[in-house]
Design goal:
Shape: globular
CATH architecture of the largest domain: Alpha-Beta Barrel
CATH class of the largest domain: Alpha Beta
CATH superfamily of the largest domain: Aldolase class I
Number of domains: 2
Structural class: alpha/beta
Distance between the termini: 55 Å
Strand content: 25-35%
Strand order of the largest sheet: 8-9-10-11-12-13-14-15
Largest sheet: 8 strands, parallel, barrel
Length: 318
């Protein structure tokens, strides 16, 4: 195969009962040698990605895949070759995973993956493994912030651990005060708070990241925060996905995928457009618009990280 042709690779994030991820180190003499990787290999002509994954994991790690789902698909151009990575999350398997070809291997906590050196193409995979399946977008806080914060706490108690604080009608001082209280709650429940605001608020308050609305996204020429903070974006079309790629966004929401009561005038994109858009994004994408927990499997099958929602994820049932 010539270097300027795309190599189709099936790879796996194998997860054990302790929620650790299995990684292996590449031999020194191969492409990207000495770096850590998620096991897998080339998809042969006429072979399905699922069959390729089963074959490669048996050859490399000795396991048989029982249950797996798509995690993320990535296109990456190295100086010497182009790669399409089709990555699956393997949660059930038979056998004991080991380095069947003599390669060094480790089980690593998800957060600790950041401490290992991977090929550049693998960075969005690590991001996808840090992020949950659900992304709560808060409703308008209204005038009663006590009720709002009580509902936020109830949402956190239900298992939500990634929250976007969206309150576009609040003046800066009021938004800052609410964000401080929301951040204290999120820290109490080991959750992360993303501010839908000027990125300067993130550093000012010590929040976990910023969510850029489409106006802020399109006005940027570079990433607004360092890599130790999340940069998320709202996208509705291919141009906004491309801009999020350019500035190095970590993840995005894309929608509306289905009809939604909050924006009834917006034409839904549908699942197939979601699939197309996730395929050109160099980051995880959440499906937005008409989403609830029952849509998680179909969102995963169409390339999404999971779902983003207000109504179905908010304990106050806004």
């Amino acid at each position: 195969m010539r270097d300027n042709q795309q190599i189709y690779v099936a790879a796996a994030a194998i997860c054990n009962a302790r929620n650790e991820i299995f990684i292996a180190r590449r031999p020194e003499h191969v492409h990207q040698g000495g770096l850590w990787e998620f096991p897998g290999g080339k998809v042969e002509p006429g072979e399905s990605v699922r069959d390729a994954l089963q074959r490669e994991l048996h050859e490399e790690t000795g396991i048989e895949v029982v249950a797996a789902r798509p995690l993320i698909r990535l296109h990456y151009d190295y100086p010497d070759k182009s790669v399409l990575l089709d990555v699956w999350l393997v949660r059930q398997f038979n056998g004991i995973a080991h380095g069947r070809e003599g390669q060094p291997v480790q089980w690593v906590a998800r957060k600790s993956l950041l401490n290992y050196e991977f090929p550049a193409a693998n960075r969005p995979i690590i991001t996808a493994l840090q992020l949950p399946d659900t992304y709560l977008i808060t409703p308008s806080p209204g005038t009663n912030t006590e009720v709002f914060l009580a509902n936020l706490e109830n949402s956190l108690q239900s298992g939500i651990n990634l929250v976007q604080l969206r309150a576009p009608d609040l003046p800066d001082a009021s938004y800052g005060a609410l964000a401080r209280d929301a951040l204290a709650l999120c820290r109490q429940y080991d959750a992360q708070l993303i501010l839908n605001s000027d990125p300067a608020w993130v550093e000012r308050l010590g929040a976990h990241g910023v969510h850029l609305n489409s106006r802020r996204l399109m006005a940027l020429s570079s990433r607004p925060l360092a890599t130790d903070s999340w940069v998320a974006a709202s996208c509705h079309n291919a141009a906004e996905i491309a801009q999020a790629n350019r500035i190095g966004a970590d993840f995005a929401v894309l929608g509306p995928v289905l009809p939604t009561r909050t924006h009834p005038q917006a034409a839904p994109l549908g699942w197939e457009v979601l699939r197309q858009m996730t395929d050109v994004a160099n980051f995880p994408v959440y499906a937005l618009g008409g989403m609830s927990a029952e849509h998680l499997p179909v969102a995963h099958e169409h390339g999404a990280q999971g779902i983003a929602a207000i109504r179905s994820l908010w304990a106050g049932n806004a």
